Amino acid sequence: MKPELMTGNRAAASAARLARVDYVPAYPITPQTEIIETIAYWVREGTMDSKFVQLESEHSMMTAAGAASLAGARVFTATSSQGLLYAMEMLYNVSGWRAPMVLANVSRALAAPIVLEPDHNDVLAARDSGFLQFHSETCQEVADLVLLAYRVAEDRRVMLPAIVNLDGFYLSFTREKVVLPEQAEVDVFLPPYDPPHPIRATSPVAKGSAVMEGHLYSYFRYNMHAAALRAKEVFNEAARDYQGHFGRAYGPVDGYRLEDADYVLTMSNSFTTLGRQAVNRMREQGVKAGLLKLRMVRPFPSEEVAALLRGRKAAAVFDQNLSPGMGGVFYPEVAASLYHLKDRPETLLPVVGGLGGKQLTADEMCKVFETMRAVGKGAAKPDPMFLMRADELARAKKALATAGVQG
Amino acid sequence: MFLRVRFHGRGGQGAKTASRILGNAAFGDGYNAQDFPVYGAERRGAPVTAFTRFSDSEITERGFIFSPDVVAVMDDSLVADQSANPFAGLRKGGLAIVNTTRPAAEVNGGRDDVTVLTLDLTRQALDVLGKAVLSASIAAAVARSAGISAEAFVDGLVDELKEVGLSDDLISKNVTMAEAVYDELKPVKLRTEELPAKAELVPFTVVVSGGGSEDIVNTGNSASRRTGNWRITRPVIDYLKCTDCMICYAYCPESAMSVRADGRVAIDYDNCKGCMICQTECPPRAIGSSTEDGR
After folding, report:
1. Strands (E), A245-367
2. Is any Cβ of chain A less than 8 angstroms from the Cβ of B89?
3. CA–CA separation, A150 vs A136, rounded Å?
4. Is B204 part of any domain?
5. Is residue A204, in this structure, part of any structural domain at all?
């Protein structure tokens, strides 16, 4: 297909249509709404052959999605932020049912206080749910990852649902060049879903049975973990096939200017584009900077992270999320991936930024590189960086003064 | 070439649509393009910012444009608006296109190192469309200044207006309006230079020095956020017809109706957003309206 300008939301909807999904249960929330509006419009005008239903909440939406997936339908849905949290109880059920549906999460920071712009506390709240997670940097990646997610989720070695994450505003409402795959090629890459034990009137089957005993529960949970781990190899297989069909290559992680890099910034999602800018600026100044992007978040690509960070002078982990009382969520996951290596980077700098869509400049990311370099060999554990510019703090203090509280 | 354009408008004027028309036009002319709007809760009259980047190489940027080459200011009341701050970061040698009837020197944001182009797009939009929607004309001004071809511009304009769902008649009026702007202008050779960055970071200990809640102790402070300049239509009380029934006072969602010492109601024009609910609700039809700038 010829390149076109489209938003990340439209790319997600387009991929769902290309995947020939049977059923789309939905509930609107900013900034996800455009996805389900687009699908609803296509279904009404007859250019998308799916059943579209607006439920009365995200909890019902997720229940309907899981149930339809168990019945044998290919299911797509989308939500954001509080919506994902409202559906949370059902996320754990749907993954436990091993229902391989795909959910697009349009990241938006969680209340309170309320805000519309993104960070990743919403999608990372679902980190332990058993959903596979793939995170996007560009609108093109959104479309490609939705198609890949179906291939991986529905593979009999996996059979787990998947979340494809895209940042609100920075992808959801940003239009950029996207090349959609041809339908005929997608049909070859992603044949119709072949469900195990589908619900049919002629062959009754009970789903979601209670177990009531820990040993049986453990049996199923360990199996879920094993399936999630297998998803990485299945993803790699599917990605090779995808590249053969459509030319674009995807791995669990993405390295940028890593070949001789001494200082590596690890990050995910749309702000990675700004991280790349910072790498280029540091390179212009003669600093051997590089970037490691996390594309696959569950399963966590520990081996790839270890392979690409070992032997470096220093690394930083940029978390656009915050677990109060601990710090960023990705930091300990990267640290755990490196712990057993003798040649792990001596410095692993924790960085938190971009919360609630707080603007980020390439300058700030350059400061992260400068801090990594300043920590130096044999230094004490680095202090975490919580990015806030002086002009932003001044604005915050002005707002607090208006509110009549001390800042 | 890599051009970064930042549009500043008010909800309803078409800033987001303008950014997409320009994105379409640049993309149609063979550039890589990217566009992106920022708005909070969507409110007519509230400041809106939108961005278009286009380049003959890959675009390796994303999000807010801090250092634009071009700013397009669709409402001159935004020039002095602290929250919109349209001239912030405009590159030295950059271009500001301002919709205004005032002279350039009054709307240049205090910058003498940029080119300011003034156009009266509101007048034209009222004449051609009957309302002050400027997406097509401001996009035309930027596209022409940036040297985008007329064919790519009109195609991009029509595609976007179709997507928005406008009637063929309104699309054709928008094209007429935009072509008039396009034909009146010439491409501008821009040699821009980024202003020095000011990304001074503050340590976490400074950030967390004070309170921790979102409590507002100074309640009732919304009047200090002057929203009167969001207004496009101005309600006017005819005191000869007004019966002091206080219906307008009760209905005003902004508490912009007050009671004077003589017991008559009065409108706080510093804060009235011009929603005109008072006019709709007034039993004796004592509230009339005028356009904000007397047009």
Report:
1. 253-256, 263-268, 289-294, 296-298, 314-319, 347-352
2. no
3. 15
4. no
5. no
Q: List the beta bridge partners of residue B201.
A: A389
Q: How many domains does chain A have?
A: 2
Instruction: For residue range A336-382, list pLDDT tens digits in order.
Output: 999 999 999 999 999 999 999 998 988 899 999 999 998 866 666 78
State which of B138, B162, B184 marks the end of a domain: B184
Instruction: Count CB pairs under 8 A between chains A and B.
Output: 114
Question: Minimum mean pLDDT among A11-15, A109-113, A234-238, B215-219: which range?
Answer: B215-219
- Same domain for A284 and A217: no
Pair B140, B60 in one domain: yes
Contact B63 A359 (CB under 8 A): yes
> pLDDT over 70 for what percent of chain A?
99
The verdict on B13 and B105 lying in the same domain is yes
- Give me the number of domains chain B comprises: 2
First to last CA, chain B: 40
- Best A4, A37, A174 residue to mutate vs chain B (most B CBs within 10 Å): A174
- For residue B247, the enclosing domain spans 222-291
Does A174 sit within 8 Å of B202, measured CB to CB?
no
A229 and A271 in one domain? Answer: no
Please list the residues that pair with A52 across neighbouring strands.
A24
Instruction: Tell me the whole-structure pTM to 2 decimals.
Output: 0.94
- Residues 6 or more apart whose Cβ sits within 8 Å of residue B111: B87, B90, B96
